[in-house]
Each structure stands twice: as C-alpha cells, then as structure tokens.
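Case study 2.
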Amino acid sequence: MSSVAFAAGGAAFAQQATPLRGPVDENVLQTQQNTPPRPAIRPAANPSTPAPAPGSNDGIPSTPYQPVSPGALPDDDAGNLGLTGVPVNDGSPPSGPVDNSGGLNPPPATVPAQIPLPADRTTAATQRTRPGQRPLRPGQTPDALTTGALEDETTGNPKAQRADKDNLPEAAIERRFVKPDPEPFAPLGIRAGTVTLRPSISQGIRATTNADDSSDGKSAVLSETRLRMRATTDWSRHSAFLDFDGTYDKTISGEDYSAPNIGLRGGFKLDLGERTTVTGEGGYRYRQEDASAPTAVIGASNRPAVQELDATLGVRHEFGRFFGEVKGKVDHTTYGKAEFPDGTTISQKDRDNTFASIALRGGFEMSPAIKPFAEVEIGKLMYDQTEDSNGYRRSGLRTALRGGIEADFGEKLSGELALGYLRQGIDDNRLSDVDGVSVDGAIKWSPQRGTDVNLGLLTRVEGATAPNDSGSIFYEGRLGIKRQIRSNLSVNAELTASLRDNKDGSGLDKGFGAEVGATYWFNRFLGLDVSARHRITRSEVDTRQTTESSVYMGLTLQR
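Prediction:
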C-alpha cells in the first residue's frame, strides 16, 4: 500500500511539472483515444536477476515512449531520451507506476536541477521542432531558448492592428476662404456710406521742344501738376458718378508759359421698371484755345480761355425686341479776351453761342449683344449776338442722320459705332452751309485679361470769325492700348489722328501724334510715371503747322 501511495503521489507531482512536449493538438488526442491500447512489453525473466525488494522504487516496467506526431523528435536523439526524463527500454525496471495509457500520461516528475542538459542548449533547440511548428526555411534562425520566445510567423495569421479612429472631427460646414486680391495695388478709396471717392495727385517735370504748341514755339522745362477725383455709388438698382480732372503747367525754365485745364463731369442712371431707363450727364470744361486753330487771333500774346458747359437727358424704353430712345442736349460755349503785346484787348463775345438739339433713336435686338439702330437729330445753333463783328449772321439749323450698332459682350467688348451725314445751316445767305460725313463711336475691347483697347471717334462742327468763312468740320480719332505687365507695372500707348476740312478753301489740316508711357507702383499709394510723346500738324497755312516732342517723369499719390 505504501508503494501505491508513493506512486500516486509521484504521479500527482509529475502532473504539476511543466510538460516537456509542449501543447498537443486536439486532433492528436482524438486519434490516440480511438486507438486501442498496446499490450505492455515485459522483459523475459532472468533467473540471475534478483527480485525487487519490498518498498523499493522499482516497479513494473512501462511502455517505451513512441511519439504519435511524426517528427516530434529527431531520429538521432534516441540515445538522449533518458536525459530528458523519458525512460529507456534497456531492461531495467521502470521508476514509476504502470503506464497503461498508451503513452498519453505525462512524464514522471523530475527535479529540474537533476536533469542533465546538453552542453550546447541552442544547438539542441535547433535540432527539435515543436508539434505543429513549421520547419525552418533556409537562412531562418529560431528564437533563442534563453528567452522562451517563439518565431514570429505573421504570413498566414497577421498581427492584429490598432483600429483606425472613427470619431474624427468633422470639417466646418462653411469655411472662410481668403482669396488673393486681383488688384493689390489698386486704390482703396474713401468710403462714405454708399459713395466711394478715389482721389489722386501727380507732380512731375516735362521737358518739351514747343511749350505753347504754336508754329513758332520754343523749348522749355515745365512743372506739371494734375489732380483727379472720381466718386461712384454702390446702389442696388440705380447708379451715379462724378469725375474731376485738372492739370496745370507752369514754366520752370525756357519760354514763359502757363496753361490750366479743368474738366468736371457727372452722370446718373435710373431704372424705372424692367424696360425703362433714364440717363443724364452734365459737364464743365475750362481750357485755352489751340494756337494752331483756324479761329486763333493772330498776333495775340495770350491764348484766350474757352469755357464749355453741356448737359444731356435721355429716356429709353424697350418694346419686346424693339427699343426707342429720345435724348435732349444743350451746349454753351464762351470765349475770353485776346491780349496783344501793346496792352490792347479784343472781346470775343460775338463768338459765344448755345446749341440745343433733340435726337430720336430706334432699333431692334438682333441678339442680346448686338442691336442695330438708326438715329435722327435736329438742333439749332444760336449765337448770343445776332451779328458778329463783321456783320454776319451765323446762327442756323443743324440736322444729322446716323446709323450704327450697339454691342454689349460684357467685359470682352462693349460700345457703339455710328456713321452718318451732318449738315450745319447758316442764316446769312453770303455764307455756305457746312456739311460732311460724320463718324462717331466709343468702343472698349479686352482681347485678353490685363489688356484693354479703347477706340474713340468724334465729329464736330467748328465756327469761324473771318469774313466769307463758314467754318469747318473736324474729325478726330484716338486708339489707346494699356497692358498690365505685373500687378504693380503697366505700360500704355496711344495713337491720335485728326483731320480738319476747312470750308474757306485753305485745304485740309492733318495732325498725328504718338505717346508711350509706363507706371510702376511701389505700393497702393505711391507710383512712378514716365512717358514720351511726339505730335505734328501739317497745313497749307504756315501759322497752323506745329511740331512738338516731350518727355515726362513724375510721382503719383493716390488713395
């Protein structure tokens, strides 16, 4: 009984020890359970062998250890089975109870300190493969047994990765996008309610070969000052504007010369309903009469002042695809005194006049951007004095007939162009009427962003003061190009051409001019201006021929 108790106690102690074979798969256990137990192999009785004494540790010999899993132990390790705690079937009696489990019982308890280990533990580890473990691949090294780590095989069963966050913050529904300023050097202006005022002042030096632009003018260096202001409204339906432009030239060295030039113009536009529009403009201009004009007083020491007042009012209404417009116009012109070197003066009040007219225009909408039209104008030219200083009555009726086209392609192309016939009658039978072809227009074209082309055409009737002189028709055309090279650098060029058809038999006066310039802005408020120009006038009358060249450099301050 004592031996049985001891054997039972040894078995219990062996169950608490760490198995040397490692984990066993369930399929291996199932296979072994279904296999009938093998009969115990007992050694043949040897008469020379003494019987075991009672109470000794020798018992019934057990079945030799046969691993069920192929490859659990290498073939060359059979001689070392005893070193790892597995009994060797060498005929000696076993040291434990009878093993009838067919090799499924755990190995007997063994004290770790008493188990002899190979000299090279790492080498022994490399010679074994655990059940269920994959064979080593060429060049693969197993983990060291000193740490007990297993090989990291993640090819078929990758490691679990940390899940991505699903509670990320959402973007704002309305984000504030700061767009770059397309015109970082444009004036900001002074805002007062819905009105914005943009003032600027320029100061520079102009060197010219003909200070007063006369046939006998001399060179000079001039100080040129220019003041400009523009006010615009920001109304939702209507609009209005006010422009001021003033220039003053004064001699610094050379020929004595001074010339003010002031212009003021304002206008409005009222939308009365969806198809009715009311427009109005008014202006004032102060200038000096051209020295090469046919009406210039020969021998005068000054250039007489000319003041012009004008106002227009028009109403436009659309009838389906057709439209009609009526416009009234009033102009008043006054002339100053002419002074002579001896101190005498001549009044020119007999040249003061007022012109009033009414124009009717009708057309149809060929497309939203193209609208052909026809226009008829009837007016009256009235001089303040019935007769001039030579006894001629120069008042008369004026008529005009024009046809043209209105274009509105947005920022790409806009404006109008008209061609027609103009006739100015004179009450005095001794003077012939002044008539001719009229060409008028204003077109703005932008072939590409940053490039602006402006075309202006003008036709007007000029009076006369000399006897037997009815006057003349004056034509003028301007072509301007402006290119924005950089946000703070722009270049511009302008070509001008003029033609005066004199009715006194003196032929034609032709004029040409060209100007180029550039503006560089240091910031929104300060800029540098440079320009150069050349102008000539050719006529059959020597006093009307002029040539002038000049260069300019100055600074502009704007707000």
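The first strand starts at residue 190 and ends at 192.
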